[in-house]
Amino acid sequence: DFMQASWDIEEVQAKGIQHLASFVKDKSAFPCLLKCTEVITRAMKTHIDSLELHVEGCTLLLEILSQALEQGVMMALDECVASCLLHTVRKHSENEEFLSSLCTLLMMVSASEVAAENLRKVGIIPDLLSILRRFLPNDKICFSCCAVLWSLAVSENNGDPAVLESAVPVISAVLQKHLQNRVVAESACSALWALSLRGCVTDSDYEPTAALLLDALRMNPERAVLVKNGCLALASLVRLSETAALAILLDSKGSGIELIKDEYHLHFDEPGVAEALCLLMNEMVQYDEVMLDMRSQKMEKLLSEIKLQFPFS
């Protein structure tokens, strides 16, 4: 009530946020803090020039959302809150340190389908792509932004396809830059999977995107989620074009078929990985030339192994 009575007075908003922050450690205050998110974001939007207030507001929102996720509470933030966060992103688009925290906040917010849809509606995708281009070496920003883009791309009403198409080369650049960073590579592979599933990869990108995904699998073979999502992304590409299937067979760094075999044997007890590999193979055999090559490399043997390992799946 104190904050709502004096939106235009920056000191009131700052003191209010600081006082709310003092309740973060008190578990019994959590239900009340959940109701304060709109007040905090409106204070940030009203005083758009106050970096200090934005930092404190963002820190408090991160605390509240972290507790919400720990307790399994999904916060479906409305379009007004999404709009406030977008204004904050645009105001501080050059501030790398603050954007690191802000992008983490956006990632946590986008875990809710409703919130992700509201972020898409207010038009945040071009801003995220701009941030990625500007701060490509920053692994924390890249991880968070790719995770947000994944959430937005899998949204049922995913808006203008041209906007999502423009995300493919940017996320590919992230993956290329951070191939050896397992966490970022995993996030980028997930985003590419969502985009390829939506048919956002253009004809000229089939081959280089497939090659890049194979590189990610080779560099991070032990990451089960990355392997699963990388294979699902490859399956989506192969479904769209034989070019992607041939790129897997004829990759300059080694046979994609051998890589598939190696990945299965490394994760033979992971049903999610096995299912993704089977889906990829199922897409590849739709092309006669590719199927003949798979036969010559004895893929039946691998399929028999998978069938024995998962007889009831």
From TrEMBL:
Keyword Nucleotide-binding recorded: yes
Reactions accelerated catalytically: L-seryl-[protein] + ATP = O-phospho-L-seryl-[protein] + ADP + H(+); L-threonyl-[protein] + ATP = O-phospho-L-threonyl-[protein] + ADP + H(+)
Enzyme superclass (EC): transferase
One of the record's GO molecular function terms: ATP binding
E.C. numbers: 2.7.11.1
Keyword Kinase: yes
UniProt KW keywords: ATP-binding, Kinase, Nucleotide-binding, Serine/threonine-protein kinase, Transferase
Record's protein name: Serine/threonine kinase-like domain-containing protein STKLD1
Source species: Dryoscopus gambensis
